[in-house]
User: Fold GTP cyclohydrolase 1 from Anabaena cylindrica.
Amino acid sequence: MTLSIRPDLNSAAQVVSSLSTQQQPIVTEAEMMQAVRTLLIGLGENPDREGLKDTPKRVVKALQFLTKGYNESLDELLNGAVFTEDADEMVLVRDIDIFSSCEHHILPVIGRAHVAYIPDGKVIGLSKIARICEMYARRLQVQERLTLQIADALQGLLKPKGVAVVIEATHMCMVMRGVQKPGSWTVTSAMRGVFSEDARTREEFMNLIRHNPNFH
Ligand SMILES: Nc1nc2c(ncn2[C@@H]2O[C@H](COP(=O)(O)OP(=O)(O)OP(=O)(O)O)[C@@H](O)[C@H]2O)c(=O)[nH]1
Ligand SMILES: [Zn+2]
Assistant:
């Protein structure tokens, strides 16, 4: 059975949620390993030589790890860590490492996310902000969508006065192949609420993420 005979499932996330309800994988790990073996042969390699013998297994395992976000949900990662608080000043978690994979080439996207919000009665456990970034990054992504998904998740969970997300990342598909521009960085942002409406709030956020912390 292959994914293509499930036209009702138009994203990997839907595929995964269908897996968990059906309790049986649509594509087996053996089939995935066979596909990697085929790739190796297509590349002119001998998949039976010693160094490559276990490569299909390793590649499948590595790809499953790099896309493990498909198996995670906001509910589970939050573990209830949303608290009622009077705080109404900006909360910023910056320099969150991002390791994602671009959906066009399945090559690494490496960078940092800076995430801020202004609470309106509710705050979230700080680590959960990094966990939200991690869940969406560990999928096949485009940087723009990753940025929006993080912003929308926080907006939905906290209904804060505003959310700001900036991601700075370098795409290996632009570095190691294709246009080959190793120094290039892509910066994307998503501004919600006061960050989108009020230039001063946005400016404060941008200044905070520009400033170099002195404990580095
Ligand atoms: N907008 C956006 N584009 C991305 C991202 N990751 C990769 N891409 C781009 O997706 C595009 C795919 O273009 P194609 O022409 O179909 O693929 P390609 O022949 O491999 O393109 P080149 O990389 O230019 O060699 C490329 O321009 C990539 O740089 C991302 O996160 N966001
Ligand atoms: Zn790419």
Notes: The chain has two domains: 27-70, 81-210. The first strand starts at residue 82 and ends at 84.
